Predict the structure.
Amino acid sequence: MNFYLFDSWSSLLRGVISGVGAYVCLIFFLRIAGKRILAKMNAFDLVVTVSLGSTLATITLSQDVTLSRGVLALALLIGLQFVITWSSTRVSWLRRFVTGEPALMLYRGEFLGHALLRERVTKAEIHAAVRSAGIHALETVEAVVLETGGSFSVVPRGEETQSSSLGQIKTPKPRI
Protein backbone atom coordinates (compact mmCIF):
# COMPACT_ATOMS: atom_id res chain seq x y z
CA MET A 1 0.00 0.00 0.00
CA ASN A 2 1.53 3.28 -1.15
CA PHE A 3 0.63 6.61 0.35
CA TYR A 4 1.85 9.39 -1.88
CA LEU A 5 2.38 12.54 0.08
CA PHE A 6 4.97 13.79 -2.35
CA ASP A 7 5.99 12.49 -5.75
CA SER A 8 8.31 15.15 -7.21
CA TRP A 9 9.10 18.81 -7.31
CA SER A 10 8.39 18.86 -11.03
CA SER A 11 4.78 17.68 -10.53
CA LEU A 12 4.26 20.39 -7.91
CA LEU A 13 5.71 23.01 -10.24
CA ARG A 14 3.49 21.73 -13.07
CA GLY A 15 0.44 22.06 -10.78
CA VAL A 16 1.35 25.64 -9.85
CA ILE A 17 2.02 26.70 -13.45
CA SER A 18 -1.11 24.99 -14.80
CA GLY A 19 -3.26 26.27 -11.95
CA VAL A 20 -2.13 29.87 -12.28
CA GLY A 21 -2.29 29.79 -16.07
CA ALA A 22 -5.77 28.23 -16.14
CA TYR A 23 -7.00 30.63 -13.46
CA VAL A 24 -5.75 33.69 -15.34
CA CYS A 25 -7.29 32.42 -18.59
CA LEU A 26 -10.60 31.67 -16.84
CA ILE A 27 -10.77 35.19 -15.38
CA PHE A 28 -9.92 36.64 -18.80
CA PHE A 29 -12.65 34.57 -20.51
CA LEU A 30 -15.20 35.47 -17.83
CA ARG A 31 -14.48 39.19 -18.23
CA ILE A 32 -14.95 38.90 -22.00
CA ALA A 33 -18.16 36.85 -21.64
CA GLY A 34 -19.79 39.31 -19.24
CA LYS A 35 -21.70 39.14 -15.99
CA ARG A 36 -24.39 36.76 -17.25
CA ILE A 37 -21.97 33.82 -17.40
CA LEU A 38 -21.96 33.37 -13.60
CA ALA A 39 -25.45 34.63 -12.85
CA LYS A 40 -26.83 31.20 -11.83
CA MET A 41 -30.27 32.33 -12.92
CA ASN A 42 -31.44 28.80 -13.77
CA ALA A 43 -30.31 25.18 -13.82
CA PHE A 44 -28.47 25.62 -17.14
CA ASP A 45 -26.36 28.44 -15.68
CA LEU A 46 -25.62 26.39 -12.57
CA VAL A 47 -24.41 23.45 -14.67
CA VAL A 48 -22.06 25.72 -16.63
CA THR A 49 -20.68 27.25 -13.42
CA VAL A 50 -20.05 23.83 -11.86
CA SER A 51 -18.48 22.60 -15.11
CA LEU A 52 -16.09 25.55 -15.15
CA GLY A 53 -14.99 24.78 -11.60
CA SER A 54 -14.55 21.11 -12.36
CA THR A 55 -12.55 21.89 -15.49
CA LEU A 56 -10.29 24.29 -13.58
CA ALA A 57 -9.65 21.61 -10.94
CA THR A 58 -8.88 19.01 -13.60
CA ILE A 59 -6.42 21.31 -15.35
CA THR A 60 -4.66 22.00 -12.06
CA LEU A 61 -4.54 18.46 -10.70
CA SER A 62 -4.40 16.08 -13.66
CA GLN A 63 -1.04 15.31 -15.21
CA ASP A 64 -2.92 13.99 -18.27
CA VAL A 65 -4.43 17.36 -19.20
CA THR A 66 -2.14 19.95 -20.75
CA LEU A 67 -2.69 23.62 -20.01
CA SER A 68 -3.57 24.30 -23.66
CA ARG A 69 -6.23 21.53 -23.70
CA GLY A 70 -7.63 22.79 -20.43
CA VAL A 71 -7.80 26.39 -21.62
CA LEU A 72 -9.51 25.18 -24.79
CA ALA A 73 -12.08 23.33 -22.65
CA LEU A 74 -12.75 26.48 -20.59
CA ALA A 75 -13.12 28.56 -23.76
CA LEU A 76 -15.46 25.96 -25.25
CA LEU A 77 -17.72 25.91 -22.16
CA ILE A 78 -17.88 29.69 -21.99
CA GLY A 79 -18.39 29.99 -25.75
CA LEU A 80 -21.24 27.46 -25.76
CA GLN A 81 -22.87 29.17 -22.80
CA PHE A 82 -22.60 32.51 -24.58
CA VAL A 83 -24.13 31.13 -27.79
CA ILE A 84 -26.99 29.42 -25.94
CA THR A 85 -27.85 32.46 -23.80
CA TRP A 86 -27.53 34.85 -26.76
CA SER A 87 -29.79 32.61 -28.84
CA SER A 88 -32.30 32.05 -26.05
CA THR A 89 -32.88 35.80 -25.73
CA ARG A 90 -33.93 35.79 -29.38
CA VAL A 91 -35.70 32.43 -29.82
CA SER A 92 -38.58 31.77 -27.43
CA TRP A 93 -38.75 27.97 -27.84
CA LEU A 94 -35.02 27.70 -27.10
CA ARG A 95 -35.44 29.90 -24.01
CA ARG A 96 -38.25 27.64 -22.73
CA PHE A 97 -36.15 24.54 -23.47
CA VAL A 98 -33.02 25.83 -21.74
CA THR A 99 -34.47 27.72 -18.79
CA GLY A 100 -37.97 26.33 -18.35
CA GLU A 101 -40.78 28.50 -17.08
CA PRO A 102 -41.72 29.67 -13.60
CA ALA A 103 -44.59 27.74 -12.03
CA LEU A 104 -47.38 29.08 -9.85
CA MET A 105 -47.64 26.96 -6.68
CA LEU A 106 -50.07 28.98 -4.57
CA TYR A 107 -52.50 31.63 -5.74
CA ARG A 108 -54.50 33.90 -3.45
CA GLY A 109 -53.97 31.67 -0.45
CA GLU A 110 -54.94 28.44 -2.24
CA PHE A 111 -52.51 25.64 -3.09
CA LEU A 112 -52.47 24.51 -6.70
CA GLY A 113 -52.28 20.77 -6.06
CA HIS A 114 -51.64 19.73 -9.66
CA ALA A 115 -48.73 22.16 -9.90
CA LEU A 116 -47.28 20.92 -6.60
CA LEU A 117 -47.38 17.34 -7.87
CA ARG A 118 -45.90 18.17 -11.28
CA GLU A 119 -43.03 20.18 -9.79
CA ARG A 120 -42.57 17.73 -6.86
CA VAL A 121 -42.99 20.44 -4.24
CA THR A 122 -44.60 19.88 -0.85
CA LYS A 123 -46.96 22.16 1.01
CA ALA A 124 -44.36 22.27 3.81
CA GLU A 125 -41.85 23.81 1.37
CA ILE A 126 -44.38 26.46 0.40
CA HIS A 127 -45.07 27.20 4.07
CA ALA A 128 -41.32 27.57 4.66
CA ALA A 129 -40.98 29.99 1.73
CA VAL A 130 -43.87 32.08 3.05
CA ARG A 131 -42.32 32.16 6.54
CA SER A 132 -38.95 33.15 5.05
CA ALA A 133 -40.70 36.08 3.38
CA GLY A 134 -41.89 37.22 6.81
CA ILE A 135 -45.54 36.46 6.16
CA HIS A 136 -47.53 34.62 8.80
CA ALA A 137 -50.80 33.80 6.99
CA LEU A 138 -51.29 32.17 3.59
CA GLU A 139 -54.45 34.23 3.10
CA THR A 140 -52.28 37.33 2.83
CA VAL A 141 -50.23 35.85 -0.02
CA GLU A 142 -51.12 36.71 -3.59
CA ALA A 143 -48.86 34.05 -5.07
CA VAL A 144 -45.91 31.73 -4.52
CA VAL A 145 -43.91 31.05 -7.67
CA LEU A 146 -41.28 28.37 -8.20
CA GLU A 147 -38.74 30.25 -10.29
CA THR A 148 -36.64 28.69 -13.05
CA GLY A 149 -33.59 28.70 -10.77
CA GLY A 150 -35.38 26.60 -8.15
CA SER A 151 -36.05 29.39 -5.65
CA PHE A 152 -39.46 30.50 -4.44
CA SER A 153 -40.80 34.02 -4.91
CA VAL A 154 -43.51 35.05 -2.50
CA VAL A 155 -45.76 37.90 -3.63
CA PRO A 156 -47.82 39.41 -0.81
CA ARG A 157 -51.31 40.66 -1.49
CA GLY A 158 -51.43 44.34 -2.08
CA GLU A 159 -53.01 46.97 -4.17
CA GLU A 160 -53.63 45.65 -7.65
CA THR A 161 -51.95 47.57 -10.44
CA GLN A 162 -52.01 47.42 -14.20
CA SER A 163 -48.54 45.91 -14.37
CA SER A 164 -48.17 42.77 -12.29
CA SER A 165 -45.02 40.74 -11.75
CA LEU A 166 -47.24 37.67 -12.27
CA GLY A 167 -48.18 38.65 -15.82
CA GLN A 168 -45.80 36.18 -17.51
CA ILE A 169 -46.71 33.19 -15.35
CA LYS A 170 -49.24 30.72 -16.68
CA THR A 171 -51.63 29.00 -14.33
CA PRO A 172 -50.92 25.29 -14.76
CA LYS A 173 -53.68 23.11 -16.14
CA PRO A 174 -54.58 19.94 -14.23
CA ARG A 175 -53.66 16.65 -15.90
CA ILE A 176 -56.53 14.34 -16.75
